[in-house]
Recover the amino acids of this structure.
């Protein structure tokens, strides 16, 4: 009998069954590895969902696309828009810098956009990574419901309810307005203007249109409270004292 050959055959045989206990230990070891493999993707997805929810309901980064608010806001600045500022009974006040949806006031016909492109741009805009929709604007509130806003007094200043307003935030060299106007702001509406008056298309430019140049309060997305980028521009966007002496509109009390 060739015992060496038999031994060689036995050596080549498969390993005996490791048993359920051994398989269980192997499964317990591999499971964390499998989880670890997909964890970065899961964490990234959760972070994006959290940021989108935060942007939708609390505070949204907003990329400044134009020079209409210089020097307060510059092209490329990212501002944080406080969406809770007017959520619980608060109302926009004179001097606030607000972001609003201009459809029905500044925009009469919505521009066409590829649905897929629009979805991607909207997601990017919600994170402050892309330009906002063409229908979104950022301006300063000059008049609220009931205010009479006129341009201009003998010194070229805008008047609100008969009180001249010294606008220290205007772009250097700009006049308060090159266009004369006299309007009583309807209740629930806002008269808004850019700080760089010679470069801003604002309420003045839409006086003859169906919306009358005024923005419904319900179309305000939020108040711009903070310049978050670039780092060299970190600062709060405070309400100026320019309107402190403006009296309440005629017929308003409180």
């Amino acid at each position: 009998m060739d015992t060496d050959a038999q031994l060689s055959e036995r050596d080549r045989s498969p390993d005996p069954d490791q048993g359920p206990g051994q398989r269980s230990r192997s499964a317990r070891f591999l499971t964390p590895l499998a989880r670890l493999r997909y964890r970065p993707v899961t964490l990234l997805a959760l972070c994006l969902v959290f940021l989108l929810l935060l942007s939708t309901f609390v505070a949204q980064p907003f990329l400044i696309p134009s020079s209409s608010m210089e020097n307060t806001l510059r092209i490329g600045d990212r501002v944080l828009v406080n969406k809770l500022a007017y959520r619980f009974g608060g109302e926009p006040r004179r001097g606030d810098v607000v972001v609003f949806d201009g459809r029905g006031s500044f925009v009469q016909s919505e521009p066409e956009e590829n649905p897929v492109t629009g979805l991607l741009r909207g997601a990017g805009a919600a994170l402050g990574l892309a330009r906002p929709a063409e229908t979104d604007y950022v301006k300063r509130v000059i008049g609220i419901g009931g205010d009479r806003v006129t341009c201009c007094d003998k010194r070229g200043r805008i008047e609100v309810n008969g009180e001249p307003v010294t606008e220290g935030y205007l772009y250097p060299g700009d006049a308060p307005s090159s266009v004369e106007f006299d309007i009583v702001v309807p209740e629930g509406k806002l008269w808004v203007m850019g700080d760089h008056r010679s470069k801003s298309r604002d309420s003045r430019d839409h006086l003859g249109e169906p919306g009358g140049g005024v923005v419904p309060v319900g179309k305000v997305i939020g108040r711009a409270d903070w310049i978050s980028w670039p780092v060299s521009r970190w600062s709060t966007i405070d309400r100026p004292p320019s309107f402190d002496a403006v009296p309440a509109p005629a017929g308003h009390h409180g």
